[in-house]
């Protein structure tokens, strides 16, 4: 369990001025301060929270599937909230059939085949469904029925791996997750989709498709998106996002640990290298590891490893907590 300490706030004149500028967005100062990503209470796609009780996980839709990086297993398939998906050796893929019924489902809740989509690194054509004996539809990947494990109480856990010698974390292509195998994702990049150009642990690489045009972009600028309107982008053309579980006052990032494998903190910029954005809204703050992160209107900014090329907005709405940002720092929720 991560340890968190409350920040002490010196009520100096400068701090009061910053407080006036910060936290004025949705709900006022600190309105979005919440449990860190990766701890119990992570949001599912429908806006509810996972909690630690297994019964609360049963009927949650998978939402946009994502890819987690396990040190032991390599890339593993996860739901929108970061919970690992599993497959059962006693099931079959051709034809798709589930052998987990009755009490088995209390420990291994079936993943519903509703509101499911793929992200980069996951072939949408592999997604399917199987009708269970009770008439409900269960998600399948490459024909294999998908489950969650009741004892995974926090995102990115893999406590179900190897249980009974028959349960295995699923790889992004539906196979059994295993380090060094071909899972539809470059094993060297982990949660960073293959072709993203950022490499394992990199924070400065350009998305695939980035060329000279993207390299000449300002450090921070606005771009017109056909669906979202004006959105922020960095020098690599990557869309920038905000996390609703962060807080603006005190300025704090609640994306830590595994969360940072998917969401990379935006680097500070020189205000002279900014276009179409009010530089008075831009600040930087020091993260717990000592690194510096760019913020707008005191809200931390990130880019998403699931965006493969400049202009992608695959991170929009992920988990009901991640959203693109307008040039004035507001969330874009359309």
Automatic annotation (TrEMBL):
InterPro entries: Lipoprotein_repeat, SCO0930-like. Residues 196-212 have a biased composition (Gly residues). Pfam families: Lipoprotein_15. Keywords: Signal. Residues 1-21 form the signal peptide. PROSITE patterns: PROKAR_LIPOPROTEIN (PS51257). Residues 31-43, 169-180 have a biased composition (Low complexity). Residues 26-73, 162-213 are annotated as: Disordered. PANTHER family: BLL4220 PROTEIN. This is Lipoprotein. The lineage of its organism: Bacteria, Bacillati, Actinomycetota, Actinomycetes, Kitasatosporales.
């Amino acid at each position: 369990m991560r340890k968190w300490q409350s920040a002490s706030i010196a009520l100096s004149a400068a701090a009061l001025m910053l407080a006036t500028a910060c936290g004025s967005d949705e709900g006022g100062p600190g309105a979005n301060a919440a449990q860190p990503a990766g701890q119990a209470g992570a949001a599912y796609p429908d806006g509810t929270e996972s909690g630690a009780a297994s019964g609360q996980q049963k009927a949650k839709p998978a939402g946009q599937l994502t890819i987690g990086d396990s040190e032991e297993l390599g890339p593993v398939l996860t739901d929108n909230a970061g919970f690992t998906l599993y497959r059962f050796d006693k099931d079959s893929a051709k034809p798709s059939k589930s052998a987990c019924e009755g009490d088995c489902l209390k420990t291994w809740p079936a993943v519903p085949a509703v509101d499911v989509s793929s992200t980069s690194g996951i072939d949408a054509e592999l997604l399917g469904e199987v009708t269970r004996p009770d008439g409900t539809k269960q998600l399948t990947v490459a024909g294999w029925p998908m489950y969650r494990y009741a004892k995974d109480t926090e995102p990115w856990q893999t406590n179900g791996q190897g249980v009974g010698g028959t349960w295995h974390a699923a790889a992004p292509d539906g196979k059994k997750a295993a380090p060094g195998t071909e899972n539809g994702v470059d094993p060297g990049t982990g949660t960073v989709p293959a072709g993203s150009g950022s490499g394992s642990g990199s924070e400065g690489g350009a998305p695939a498709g980035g060329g000279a045009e993207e390299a000449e972009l300002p450090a921070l600028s606005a771009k017109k998106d056909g669906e979202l309107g004006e959105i922020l982008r960095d020098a690599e053309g990557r869309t920038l996002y905000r996390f609703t579980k962060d807080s603006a006052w005190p300025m704090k990032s609640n994306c830590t640990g595994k969360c940072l494998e998917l969401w990379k903190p935006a680097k500070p910029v020189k205000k002279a290298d900014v276009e179409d954005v009010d530089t008075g809204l831009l600040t930087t703050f020091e993260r717990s590891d000592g690194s510096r992160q760019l913020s707008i209107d005191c809200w931390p900014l990130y880019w998403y490893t699931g965006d493969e090329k400049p202009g992608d907005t695959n991170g929009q709405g992920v988990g009901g907590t991640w959203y693109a940002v307008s040039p004035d720092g507001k969330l874009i929720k359309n």
